[in-house]
Amino acid sequence: MDKLCLFSYWRSSAAYRVRIGLNLKGLAYDIMPVHLLRDGGEQHAESFREANPQRLVPVLQHGQRMLRQSMAILEYLDEMWPEPPLLPATARDRQRGRALSQAIACDVHPLNNLRVLQYFEREWGVPQAERDEWVRHWIEEGFAAFEAMLDGHPSTGRFCDGDTPTMADCCLVPQVYNARRFGVDMAKYPAIARIEQACLALPEFEAALPENQPDAPRP
Ligand SMILES: N[C@@H](CCC(=O)N[C@@H](CS)C(=O)NCC(=O)O)C(=O)O
User: Are the beta carbons of 58 and 21 closer than 8 angstroms?
Assistant: First the structure.
C-alpha cells in the first residue's frame, strides 16, 4: 500500500479530525509537522506551497498525491477503507452526520481560525481579550445549536450517531478541545460533554490528542 503521511500541527483542530479518522480506520501514517506559528508560520513557506496552495493544514499525502481539506480527506478514507464506516448506514443518517460535521467544520471553526485572529490583530489591533471573546462567542453559538440537534434525537447514542464513532465525532472532539482552551463552560452542553467523554475513552481518540503528537511541546 502507498504510504500515508499527514502534514499536521499538534493544536490544529482540522488536522486533529483527520488523525482521529486515520486511527479509527487503523491506518499507519507518518506525521510531518508544520509549525503554524514559528517563523511567521511554516504553512506560508514556499516549500509548503506544493503541499497546499491554501496554506492550511491538514494535508494527507497518499503515495504521490496530496489530499487537502479535512472533510474531503475523511470521506476519502471512508471510500478507500470502508471499515469501520465513518458515516452512518442510512442516507437519512448520513445526511444528519454530514450536517453535524459541517455545523462545526463550516460554521464554527473557520471564524476562529488562526489567520482570522491574526488579521484582527494585525489590521485592526484587536486586543487579545476581545479576540478570545470572539472565539468563545462563535463556539457557544455553534454548540447551542449542536446540542439541540443531538438532544432527544433518535439517532443520538453514546456518540453523535448511534453507539460507534463517526465523522461527526471526529469534528466535535477537536472543537471541544478548542472550546476548553478558550474557557467555554462545557456544563452548558451536557450531550456534547457526554459524547466527548465517551470518545476520549477510546484509544483512537486518545492517540490523536494534541498533547500526544510528536510536535507537541514537552512539559
Ligand atoms: N477547511 C479546512 C480548514 C483547515 C484549517 O483552517 N487549518 C488551520 C489549522 S486548524 C490552519 O492551517 N491555519 C493556518 C492559518 O490560519 O494560517 C480543512 O478542513 O482542512
Answer: no
**pLDDT (tens digit per residue) in 93-141:** 999 999 999 999 999 999 999 999 999 999 999 999 999 999 999 999 9
- Cell numbers for 212, please give them: 500526544
**Predicted TM-score of the model (pTM):** 0.98
Closest CA to 18 of 64, 86, 82: 86
Distance 57 CA to ligand 1 centre (A): 5
Nearest CA to ligand 1 atom 19: 70
- CA-nearest residue for atom 20, ligand 1, is 69
| Other beta carbons within 10 Å of 9 | 26
Q: Could you tell me if the CB of 41 is within 6 A of ligand 1?
A: yes
Cβ-contact 70, 17 below 8 angstroms: yes
* Cα–ligand 1 centroid distance for 113 (angstroms): 7
